[in-house]
TrEMBL record:
Its main location: membrane. This is M48 family metalloprotease. Residues 127-213 form the YxkI PH domain. It is found in: Cell membrane. The keyword Nucleotide-binding does not apply. Keywords: Cell membrane, Hydrolase, Membrane, Metal-binding, Metalloprotease, Protease, Transmembrane, Transmembrane helix, Zinc. It comes from Paenibacillus tritici. It holds the Pfam family Peptidase_M48.
Length: 539
């Protein structure tokens, strides 16, 4: 009944929008209404868990852990968000009256406002309880509640204050942090499978000691970690780097600021486009440095990993590339940099906990991305397609004088272009990923079998962490039995994985390496091309 009423309401809303506004305005309004509905749905998704935990706590003997609140904390976060969108806001106010870019800005701001609402609600409603009898910690927040066994805590750490440059969502990459901090007091950091939780509570040292006693584990850091305030002079370089990342990668303020300046001086359209492309190329050129700051990446110190990286990178012909580590509970690796001389490979702390044979496979995979300049070419393909789509839409609106007379065909054509964008992007990206698997296997002593085992180990650990994270934050009735990434997916999910996602399904990648263990070449390309469609359209 609930889903039926939602579908009926959606159909009625679409009809009303197009009846009131016609085309193409109706299409634009429809896009914003859809985005708003999705944003609100995601925002409210945590309410069910809140109600479930509230009812459970009422039936238990629990100790409330007092949370420290200070309004400076939430206003500091709000201030950073406003700064990130300053350029985009000025473009909305002072930019050209009719500009497609304004619609993208409004869409981005809609998502940002939703996130800030969630953060404000978290700040005002978060409460923390401990049940010694059940051995559970309960974090109650209207929109983002958690329940987890203290036996799941892998590490407890105290930080001297909130590291805003690490916790603000616009200033980070590969972040698995869940921020419940409500002041700039001392922070209790809890490392869990797939997630790291940050809290500001009273009696931080006592609760840290109590949790370590109950879990019979010790923190690897005896003393508290000293954190500099984000405005400290020794943090200026990090602050500027992360802010630049936020306005160029997480937002569009940098680009809109440049375009607004050119528009103010009445610069010709062709010169504005040229300057925007040049600025984009400059950002690709410095992307390794920007992302290094954004991830707070530090050089790996484990001698086994360093030795493995040196051996693999030498075989790949990129001996000067270094491997870095970023603090994250996600299982992932990333190659960055426009060219070989400016590239780096970064692994998360969770990934570095895998067996060394698995780490070697991940390093070999990323080495191919560096060797083949996949980061640069991936960006070029993406921008080329964006220009084609934008050019196609402009051509339609220029050539068709009576838009209303061809409303339905144009509507279908616009949707086709929008759908084809991620399909083409997925095609290019997946081809690079398959090449990285098979060509990277040639850098390993164990060949394709070691690469297959590496990906399988990564996928299994990822699945386990994601399942744990789901149990912490989702209602019991919404939880489903975890599906292994190494198992063939149901048809619809397979279709999306092959046609939309950046990576082919893990089950296909591992199976292809094990069964068809050829090195990169025509045979593997043909198999990927054939299976991309066969697996997408067959049960």
């Amino acid at each position: 009944m609930g889903y039926g009423s939602e579908i009926a309401g959606a159909i009625a809303a679409i009809g009303f929008i197009f009846y009131q506004h016609g085309f193409p305005e109706g299409f634009i309004y429809f896009s914003f209404v859809s985005a708003g509905y999705l944003a609100i749905s995601l925002l409210m998704a945590g309410q069910g868990k809140y109600g479930e935990l509230l009812e459970e706590i009422r039936q238990l003997e629990v100790t409330e852990i007092e949370i420290v609140r200070n309004s400076q904390r939430i206003f500091a976060e709000l201030g950073i968000s406003i700064l990130v969108f300053t350029g985009a806001t000025f473009f909305l106010i002072y930019g050209p009256e009719f500009s497609l870019l304004k619609y993208f800005i409004v869409y981005g701001m809609l998502i940002a406002i939703t996130e800030m609402i969630k953060r404000f609600v978290t700040y005002f409603t978060t409460r923390l309880y401990y049940s010694k009898q059940q051995g559970n910690l309960y974090i109650l927040s209207r929109l983002a509640s958690r329940k987890f066994s203290i036996q799941d805590i892998q590490e407890t750490t105290i930080e001297s204050t909130v590291d805003l440059l690490k916790l603000h969502p616009y200033l980070t990459l590969f972040s698995s942090n869940t921020d419940f901090t409500t002041s700039f007091n001392k922070v209790l950091r809890l490392l869990l499978p797939g997630e790291t939780i940050y809290l500001t509570i009273q009696e931080t040292e006592q609760w840290k000691a109590a949790l370590e006693t109950e879990t019979k584990s010790e923190s690897t850091i005896e003393n508290e970690v000293f954190v500099l305030p984000f405005y400290h002079k020794r943090n200026i370089k990090r602050l500027l780097g992360k802010f630049y990342f936020a306005i160029t990668v997480k937002g569009v303020s940098a680009y809109t600021g440049v375009l607004l300046l050119l528009y103010y001086f009445r610069t010709p359209a062709w010169l504005m486009v040229t300057m925007a492309i040049m600025y984009w190329l400059f950002n690709i050129y410095i992307s390794d440095r920007v992302l290094k700051v954004a991830m707070d990446a530090k050089a790996v110190t484990d001698p086994k990993v360093i030795s493995a990286a040196d051996k693999i990178f030498a075989k790949a012909g990129i001996p000067n590339v270094k491997v870095y580590e970023t603090d994250s509970a996600q299982y992932n690796g990333l190659a960055t940099g426009m060219n070989i001389g400016r590239s780096m490979v970064t692994l998360t702390t969770a990934t570095l906990n895998l067996p060394i044979d698995a780490i070697e496979g991940i390093l070999a995979h990323e080495a191919v991305h560096v060797k083949k300049r996949d980061i640069l070419y991936g960006q070029l393909y993406r921008v080329l397609l964006m220009l084609i789509v934008a050019g196609g839409l402009l051509l339609i609106f220029k050539q068709v004088s009576d838009i209303e007379a061809f409303a339905i065909p144009i509507f279908l054509l616009v949707w086709l272009l929008i759908i084809l964008f991620p399909v083409f992007q997925s095609f290019c990206s997946q081809l690079m990923e398959v090449r990285a698997d098979h060509l990277g296997a040639s850098f390993l002593d164990g060949g394709t079998l070691q690469m297959a085992d590496s990906l399988a180990a990564l996928a299994t650990s990822q699945d386990e962490a994601m399942q744990k994270t789901a149990t912490y934050s989702m209602k019991k009735e919404d939880l489903k039995e975890g599906r292994s990434s190494l198992a063939r997916s149901p048809w619809l999910l397979r279709f999306l994985e092959f046609q939309i996602m950046d990576h082919p399904p893990m089950y296909w990648r591992v199976n292809t390496l094990r069964v068809h263990g050829n090195q990169w070449g025509k045979e593997i390309r043909r198999r990927w091309w054939k299976d991309r469609f066969k697996e997408s359209f067959t049960k």
